[in-house]
Amino acid sequence: MKKIRKSFWRAYWRIHDKKKMLVARLKGYLDGLPPKTRKRIVLA
After folding, report:
1. CA separation (Å) from 26 to 3, 8, 17, 18, 42?
2. For the chain, what are the domain ranges?
3. What is the pLDDT of residues 17-37, one digit of tens each?
4. Quick check: 29 and 21 in contact, CB under 8 A?
5. pLDDT above 70 (res 44)
6. What is the per-residue pLDDT for 20?
7. Is residue 38 packed enough to be buried (19+ CB in 10 Å), middle (13-18) or exposed (0-12)?
8. How far apart are CA 26 and CA 35, in angstroms?
């Protein structure tokens, strides 16, 4: 039982880190866009 939980947490954290990286990349991408375009994307 403990082994399963351990591997589950490992997978969870891996996904969590990937999500954080994606969000950071998306933020960096949005920062590179002109403000007008950024507003349009955020509001859409």
Report:
1. 35, 27, 14, 12, 12
2. 2-43
3. 999 999 999 888 888 888 888
4. no
5. no
6. 94
7. middle
8. 15
**How confident is the model at residue 39, as a pLDDT?**
80
Three-state SS annotation for the chain: CHHHHHHHHHHHHHHHHHHHHHHHHHHHHHHHCCHHHHHHHHHC
**Between 30 and 9, the higher pLDDT residue:** 9
CB 17 within 8 A of CB 10: no
Residue in the structure block whose two tokens are 């996904």: 15
The tokens for 23 are 């969000």
